[in-house]
Amino acid sequence: MRVLLDTHVVLWWLADDPTLSDEIKHLLDTEPDAYVSTATLWEVSIKQTLGKLAPADLPERVRDAGFRPLPITVDHAIAAGRLPEIHRDPFDRMLVAQARCEDLTLVTRDPYIHKYDVALLSA
User: Fold this and answer.
1) Domain range enclosing 89
2) Which residues pair with 37 in a beta bridge?
3) Residue pair 1/34 in contact by the 8 Å Cβ criterion
4) How far is CA 29 from CA 19, 56, 66, in A?
5) Which has the least CB within 10 A, 9, 10, 60, 71?
6) Is residue 3 a contact partner of residue 31, using CB atoms and an 8 Å limit?
7) What is the average per-residue pLDDT within 23-33?
8) Cis peptide before 84 (omega within 30 of 0)
């Protein structure tokens, strides 16, 4: 299963947080096609700079976690801009657009994302 990870899912996985089920942890530990978006690194970097996330090297830890990187393309940007105004967070809108454009299953617990027409796996 080709998956795209929402930011909170990556952070929970890095922290070995019990919030994630064993099934999701196993998937993330073994799935070679698990992607992390450039938008996630951008979001983590901003929140880390604002003091909302620690440690200082968290963006690098996300980058180096072994997931496949998913760059943001022009098509992703257009698709994100054209999404219905269900979710106002631009990072989450980008993840929805990327999942749709790249035919990925988005792993998330965000209830607003669940309102979009996108393949989902509930975290």
Assistant:
1) 3-122
2) 70
3) no
4) 16, 24, 9
5) 71
6) yes
7) 94
8) no
Residue 20: partners with Cβ closer than 8 Å, 6 or more residues away: 9, 12, 13, 28, 123
For residue 87, the model assigns a pLDDT of: 85
Residue found under tokens 């509930």: 122
Report the domain count for the chain.
Answer: 1
Please, which residues bridge with residue 42 across strands?
Answer: none
Other CB atoms within 10 Å distance of the CB of residue 47: 17
- Name the pTM for this structure: 0.95
Q: Give the DSSP H or E segment for 52.
A: none
Which pairs from 44-47 meet CB under 8 Å and 24+ separation?
A: 44/7, 44/10, 44/11
Beta strands in 1-90 (DSSP E): 3-5, 34-37, 68-70
Q: Which CATH number characterizes residue 79's domain?
A: 3.40.50.1010
pLDDT tens profile 76-97: 999 999 999 898 899 999 999 9
Would you give the DSSP letter of residue 67?
Answer: P
List all residues 6 or more positions away from 47 whose beta carbon is below 8 Å from its beta carbon: 53
pLDDT at 40: 98
